Amino acid sequence: MSFRLAAPSCVIPDRVGPNCRALAPLVREVGLMLLETRGCQDYDDRDLPPDLPDLGLSYHAHLPVDLPWDFGPDAVCGSLGAIEQKIAFLHPCGYVLHPPPPGELTRLVRRRPDLASSLLMENTGNSDLRDIWPEIVSLDLGVCLDVGHLVSYDQERILQIPGFLERVRMLHVYGGESGRGHAGLEELPDPWLLRAILGSVRRDCVLVAELFRLDELTRSLELLRSWLDAWGMDHD
Fold it and tell me: What is the pLDDT of residue 180?
């Protein structure tokens, strides 16, 4: 098994299709950044051209951060269903989700039990996942560990939660988060922390270099590959 390198679908100022074409020579997988519910529901063939499968990429999706949790699980499922239909032809292998208020995940999965095997809960600046950890365990959900959030918001204690690292299926790797956005991987305060994390997770995890400019992404991917090689960790 080897770590699979990925990148977000917004590294050049263009639609998803041209971004994926720019990324195809650099990574094996693209994270579709579907961050706004209404805007993504309005995507058409200009945004998601039908020839995207021909690029030979795998895909996962970052689900909207503005899902209508206040209106109940039926409203959330309706929004998700519309987006799922848009990207079904790309056969996404997982869905990254920012944590909703406690209790909402349980209601969602009761309504859509098929989602449980695909959902990856991400730690954010507002939630380190501890408040919904019992739900993550009871629903048997995966984790997307955002290393930039981890180091920027002093969330290292979540690594000590029993079973936490065993649930990690994806990592967002970059140097940290600030008012200027995501920093390149060369600004990561402690690369050895990343090495320790990678040594404790499954070797088939997806490593998303979560940079949003092509030049920064390219530099960070080169650095990440050099670290993985030096640490004796296989990657594609």
Answer: 86
Quick one: tokens of 165? 């690292």
Q: What is the pLDDT averaged over residues 168-185?
A: 95
Nearest C-alpha neighbor of 17 from the set 38, 32, 36? 32
Q: How many CB atoms lie within 10 A of CB 17?
A: 18
Q: pTM of the entire structure?
A: 0.97
Helix extents (H) in the chain: 16-23, 37-41, 73-87, 104-111, 133-139, 147-152, 191-198, 214-230
Residue 179, pLDDT above cutoff 90: no
Asked whether residue 108 carries a pLDDT value surpassing 90, the answer given is yes
Q: What are the C-alpha distances in Å from 38 to residues 78, 81, 185?
A: 12, 12, 32
Q: Where are the beta strands (DSSP E) in 13-63?
A: 29-33, 58-62
CA 7 to each of CA 142, 155, 201: distance values in angstroms, whole numbers, following the listed order? 19, 23, 19
119: enclosing H helix or E strand = strand 119-122
Contacts for 44 with CB less than 8 Å, ≥ 6 apart: none
- Picking from 2, 21, 4, 37, the residue whose alpha carbon sits closest to that of residue 214 is 21
Which residue, among 106, 99, 40, has the nearest Cα to 72 in the 3D structure? 106
Domains and CATH numbers, the chain: 4-230 (3.20.20.150)
